[in-house]
User: Which sequence fits this backbone?
């Protein structure tokens, strides 16, 4: 029985109410999931077990989602990348979502979130879960909204009902905007762009209209009970993340972060794994401070950031503004980057946007892993350098994050198969290829020595 | 007479041997060029004069290039972006180069380098100079190579002849690989990718073959004499920049950097403006150290960096790996970023690659300017945030670094003119637009207060 099969069996055997990975870890048990995920990254399983036990790593794996391979989220593990997919009121087609999922996984997404808001939401989600080898996250309030006439008709009971249904289907982690409180709402008034979190703005509106506290906060214990039952990891959503540089690092953002810390502790007390979601739009020089603040206020729980986007003036290129911020964030401790696609701020991403977004985030995550000297992180870079110097083009394509794109660009000017072993490319041409000339230089040196 | 006309007249009146901007600045004179360039950036002209006098800023403006507007390169000025264009042996078409120049300037390149190596090199360069409103740089050894049978036929006299001809044509700054010395060549042997600078590898080969010292080094005084005569700024080329992460920050690189410092001082003694070229491929965590080292060894002369690329495994996306490294470099003091296009390591960039490369570098330069709090740097971001919150799509396109791209992406799903004032876009749709919901929230708050 291979490792994946043994994990599947382990999950299948676990009845409702089986211990969560956090509980096992605290009890000193290295589960097959922990062992698998640790081994894949070259980490010591006992070290990983301790990180999970202390809440600094999570292993998001729903008991009802045996299709997925477990993996680690935490700042001592490799930095991970999430890709958002999902239907909208305008486009709701299961096959299209599966194509986006496939695209995301092909280019290296470690997890995907199904943010569907249109069409047969449970049906699309089920198709995604059953076809995904990576863990799947959701934002349950989106489905809750779809079930009511107006957002104000939402009830705490409906929210819990949706959470339970999604958990039973196998969703591995869920974003809940539980940390925005009534007292935070006035802090938003002075902002330039208000609330830019979809789920967060809906919850805030509900609270303001009913003048009642956040239902995810008031019913947090019931929510934890459901999560514990299926081992759903909580991703505490940042309703108050800044939507522009002007709003970055403000009182609203940090007030919510403080509550994140409190709710994180409460989750772990109930054996529920938890990560914290973070900004957003942050100027480059404030990213380090933001990462440190999360570690301090939230007991170093894994930080899952969106972007951060480091300038507001590049719509159409926000995968790049995010790759810049994401590298800096991961370098200072972010555990997972939520990709941002070129369409951010402009429209719904298509398949190609998914590819561009995943690659940009993978670059950021990898650049930070290399900078932090994580085990083996630079091996692929070194292999690429060797392939370049030996003009082994096929090996370069194989090692590239997006070998298809690299091959396509190379072949644009030199498509012939003979050029796959040529000691130059069309960038400089044969006469001006520095690497080819470098080899001549080596010959001179060898002759003289 | 407007400012540009007065600059043109000033340049036209200056005979051969007129003082350079550096000489003027040292004599306490604020030239029209200094005043113009300072005013454009909102800097005090006297402050700029002092920076130039001390060699921490340059204003690359050849007396024979009145078509160009002067601008500042230095770490206290806004970070600048250079775009490389130029013919190759495979494609040599003047109109095509002019189209690439136009594209680069349209998307915000502050300067361009004509790296032509094929066709009528002086003719292409003249067309570029006469049509460019931005300063133009060159790498004279490329033209020298084109004039001889074999690189080994190059003589110091030929190099100086080419430099003088290009200077007389109006080239504003020139890359010369003067700082690689015979004693450095053995340091390259242990490298993974040897020498990856085209000019540098040619000079190194010449030195090794003839067993003679670098001709740009031995004839440096004559070179300075030509530069002084036309006020050509020197850009000391980094022949020994690393070509992969494995070679970063090695002995070869820093040995050359030390000579850069020496040659920079010698240039300024002769009233010649000078900047220093830098790497290359550098892991993220070594970028700050690299910037500091240049400031220390080269007296804080403007540092003009290529990339730095922070991982080797993303061919096809090296505009992104460079934007990451470029932001970090500029944040720690790089004065100008040389763009890297998606085609880097794969082929010759086309017009679209120029656009992608310029925008990626502009993002990096701007993100660093914002992070450093340079005067007015964040104004455009703040205006964008306001335009977003008021759903003023036309204003968003106007403020975007690439408004054409932003409009195109927005219109992909919502092309109708009515959507230009819609309070949502296709990303989330109307029901889920957080900003629209935020406005409702504000209404609730207003009602209660």
Assistant:
């Amino acid at each position: 029985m291979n490792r994946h099969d043994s994990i599947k069996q382990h999950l299948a055997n676990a009845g409702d109410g089986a211990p969560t990975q956090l509980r096992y870890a605290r009890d000193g048990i290295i589960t097959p999931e922990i062992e698998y995920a640790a081994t894949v990254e070259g980490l010591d399983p006992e070290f990983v077990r301790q990180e999970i036990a202390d809440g600094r790593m999570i292993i998001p794996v729903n008991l009802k989602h045996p299709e997925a391979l477990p993996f680690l989220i935490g700042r001592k593990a490799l930095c991970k990348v999430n890709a958002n997919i999902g239907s909208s009121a305008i486009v709701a087609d299961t096959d299209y979502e599966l194509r986006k999922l496939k695209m995301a996984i092909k280019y290296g997404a470690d997890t995907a979130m199904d943010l569907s808001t249109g069409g047969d939401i449970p049906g699309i989600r089920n198709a995604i879960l059953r076809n995904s080898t990576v863990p799947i996250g959701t934002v349950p309030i989106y489905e809750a909204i779809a079930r009511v006439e107006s957002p104000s008709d939402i009830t705490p009971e409906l929210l819990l009902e949706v959470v339970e249904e999604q958990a039973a289907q196998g969703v591995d982690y869920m974003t809940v905007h539980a940390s925005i409180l009534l007292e935070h709402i006035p802090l938003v008034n002075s902002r330039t762009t208000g609330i830019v979190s979809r789920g967060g703005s809906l919850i805030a509106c509900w609270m303001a209209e009913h003048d009642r506290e956040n239902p995810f906060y008031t019913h947090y214990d019931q929510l934890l009970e459901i999560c514990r039952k299926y081992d759903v990891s909580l991703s505490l959503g940042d309703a108050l993340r800044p939507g522009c540089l002007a709003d970055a690092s403000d009182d609203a953002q940090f007030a919510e972060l403080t509550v994140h810390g409190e709710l994180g502790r409460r989750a772990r007390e109930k054996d529920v794994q938890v990560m914290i979601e973070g900004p957003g739009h942050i100027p480059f020089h404030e990213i380090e401070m933001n990462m440190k603040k999360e570690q301090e206020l939230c007991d170093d729980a894994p930080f899952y950031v969106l972007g951060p986007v480091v300038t507001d003036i590049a719509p159409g290129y926000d995968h790049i503004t995010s790759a810049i911020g994401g590298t800096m964030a991961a370098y200072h401790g972010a555990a997972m980057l939520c990709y941002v696609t070129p369409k951010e701020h402009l429209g719904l991403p298509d398949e190609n946007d998914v590819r561009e977004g995943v690659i940009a985030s993978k670059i950021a995550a990898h650049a930070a892993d290399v900078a932090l000297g994580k085990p083996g992180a630079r091996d692929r870079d070194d292999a690429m350098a060797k392939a370049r110097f030996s003009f082994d083009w096929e090996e370069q394509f194989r090692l590239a994050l997006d070998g298809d794109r690299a091959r396509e660009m190379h072949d644009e000017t030199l498509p012939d198969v003979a050029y796959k072993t040529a000691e130059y490319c069309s960038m400089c041409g044969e006469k001006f290829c520095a690497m080819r000339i470098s080899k001549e230089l080596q010959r001179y040196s060898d002759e003289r020595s």
